[in-house]
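step=predict obj=Serine/threonine-protein kinase RsbW n=135
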Amino acid sequence: MTQLTGRPATDDDIVHLTVPADGGYLSVLRTATAGLAARLQFALDEIEDLRIAVDEACAMLLAIATPAAELECRFSVTEDALTVEVTVPTAPGAKLPAESSFAWKVLTALTTSASASAADGRASISLLTRRSAGY
């Protein structure tokens, strides 16, 4: 089951990408996001919104990542939605921005829903975007 949709996801509907936790590799994740959203026939503006949201979530995580960390990205594809979960090991004492921060306002404005968790030296941000009914 995916965390945000509550729907079962099969192995065929999940894509995992791991890249160095470095801003220079975020284009790989943005491109994968756009490709998967296009596969679901998202509108062009929805695809761009999701690309920006993934970029913002990754930037939030890169700011608290340990040196030489890897950024793990899990894409879950369902019939009408794409869930992106990004995870990184965190530096001791590192905290995600507050949900009242500008970064969180961006995430919630650009996606259907967004959530974050931090435990055992790792932080994750999950983004869910559903395709608009007008498709």
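step=describe
The longest helix spans residues 44-62.
step=end
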